[in-house]
Amino acid sequence: MSELVLRKTTIGYSLANTVEELVAKKKISEKLGETIMAQFDKSIISAIESQIPTSAKCTFKGHVQGVRRYDNVWMFNLDTVEYKQGKVLRSIGNIKLVAQGDTPIEKTKKNTKRKKAEATNSTEPNE
């Protein structure tokens, strides 16, 4: 899990601002500020791993307002979202869902066949 994503949460952002303010006022050293943020990263990751089962399955259902992809990171903006985990169903309004993959998406057989057909058609001589 990326520490930078955790630092963009409300608690991470608040802690970073507080640490920066203390460093600017020379109440703590810059090295101590970095140590505090590193410990925050470790503590949050540990808490998430111990509190959230990694085998949990959930479903999001909503209207897609926008999708972006950059370097195998997907961001979905969803509206009127329903979240379901197990038998629990919740309506949560608007969310931004960020997903990151470890490996690039493989080409599907359907896309590969279509591209081969297009390449074959484009190499035929014009009559």
How is this structure best described in words?
This protein has 127 residues and is an alpha+beta fold. It folds into 2 domains: 49 residues; 43 residues, TATA box binding Protein, subunit D, domain 2 (Roll), CATH 2.30.18.10. The chain is built from 4 helices and 3 strands. A 3-stranded antiparallel β-sheet has the order 1-2-3, with no helix packed on it. α2 packs antiparallel against α3. The longest helix has 22 residues. The chain is elongated.
Please trace the helix and strand order, writing H or E for each element.
HHHEEEH
Structural class by SSE content: alpha+beta
Number of strands: 3
Alpha carbon gap, first and last residue:
57 Å
Reported for the largest beta sheet, the result is: 3 strands, antiparallel
Task: Please count the helical segments.
Answer: 4
Strand order of the largest sheet: 1-2-3
Look at the structure and give the mean pLDDT.
79
Proportion of beta-strand residues:
25-35%
Low-confidence stretches: none
**Portion of residues within helices:** 40-55%
As a whole number of angstroms, the C-alpha radius of gyration is: 23 Å
Describe the global form.
elongated
Number of structural domains? 2
Break the fold down into its secondary structure elements and pairings.
Elements: H1 3-7, H2 10-24, H3 30-51, E1 58-70, E2 73-85, E3 88-100, H4 109-123
Antiparallel strand pairs: 1-2, 2-3
Helix pairs in contact: 2-3
